[in-house]
């Protein structure tokens, strides 16, 4: 597997475009389009929030009930959530505009929105945006990068990843982009993620690969504990790599799953590191667990602890907060057997051994915790299972951003 530069346009046959439609933001792009030269197999995972935005319902119908998809249209600024029948009609009108402009089936057009909940989208601006983007579709990496920028809301950087590998003597590419910075506590995936691949694979296995992979990637991310109404990850496969179709769980399938996992992991980590107001990516690894479920529960409990997140912001090795968060997680373990380490580019230090302090150097710990990516590793000495969760520190700016988000 080779890590390459790129995102949604890295795979063969995929193009992207973006435009400034003036939906909510002024002076910046706020709509993106992803298009495949040929129809694709489509898979998706969606929010578990009972309150689901109109685009989520629209996309679920296409992914579950239609044989193919070919276009994704996304806007930022307004979420089209809690908008009733008018919101769903907006999805339909957007798809019809794309169908007319691109000469595709409207049932092959996926839509996504992100931004303020409760506002109605200006349908005319969306349709005009679709018409503006269609002639600008381009398969270049730059076009993909511009699309990644267009879907940002409070994100500070665009988020992309791509890899290549071989199946049956053919080069296969997986690439993707995502956005997410706040209202991030997915129970399936992140706010919005779009992954494209030219692999030839059955629709059933494509869905299974994605559904399984989100458990170890997007499901392990938390910024603030809030599960969005719009969470959507879409995976399109157009088969243009020309490999023999993957129809069973063989070595080719496992190679694809490995590549998909790399892309999704990188995107998930980019979301965590770009959490609203964050200054550091906070990674929590649980090792020595007796089951995967136990490790997942413990790691997510620590990464979502507000007190621990605040300590990471202060570069404070307040390990008691971590042990406390593990203790109320609901997972059973012996706190008197836990070893805890902090690690970053500045080094690694053992903070506690068998549940008590090692007498570590506070200065050394502060130095390690002062990097922009920090890892806490807890060994609970019960087995050989592991899990990793990603989050970020909790800063003053998080409150500032969300106190006046609508205004």
Notes on the structure:
It is built from eleven helices and 15 strands. The chain is an alpha+beta fold. It folds into two domains: 2-273, 4-Layer Sandwich (L-amino peptidase D-ALA esterase/amidase); 281-403, Ubiquitin-like (UB roll) (Roll), CATH 3.10.20.340. The strands form two sheets. Strands 1, 2, 3, 4, 5, 6, 7, 8 and 9 form a nine-stranded mixed β-sheet that branches. Strand 6 and strand 7 form a beta hairpin. Helix 1 packs across helix 2, helix 2 packs parallel to helix 3 (123-133) and helix 5 packs across helix 6 (251-273). Pathway: Amino-acid biosynthesis; L-arginine biosynthesis; L-ornithine and N-acetyl-L-glutamate from L-glutamate and N(2)-acetyl-L-ornithine (cyclic): step 1/1; Amino-acid biosynthesis; L-arginine biosynthesis; N(2)-acetyl-L-ornithine from L-glutamate: step 1/4.
List the helices and strands and how they pair.
Elements: E1 2-4, E2 14-19, E3 31-46, H1 54-65, E4 69-78, H2 84-102, E5 109-116, H3 123-133, H4 141-150, E6 159-167, E7 170-179, E8 192-197, H5 203-213, E9 232-237, H6 251-273, E10 281-289, H7 292-303, H8 306-313, H9 319-327, E11 339-344, E12 347-353, E13 356-357, H10 362-369, E14 373-379, E15 385-392, H11 396-403
Parallel strand pairs: 4-5, 8-9, 10-14
Antiparallel strand pairs: 1-6, 2-3, 3-4, 3-9, 6-7, 7-8, 10-15, 11-12, 11-14, 12-13
Helix pairs in contact: 1-2, 2-3, 5-6, 7-9
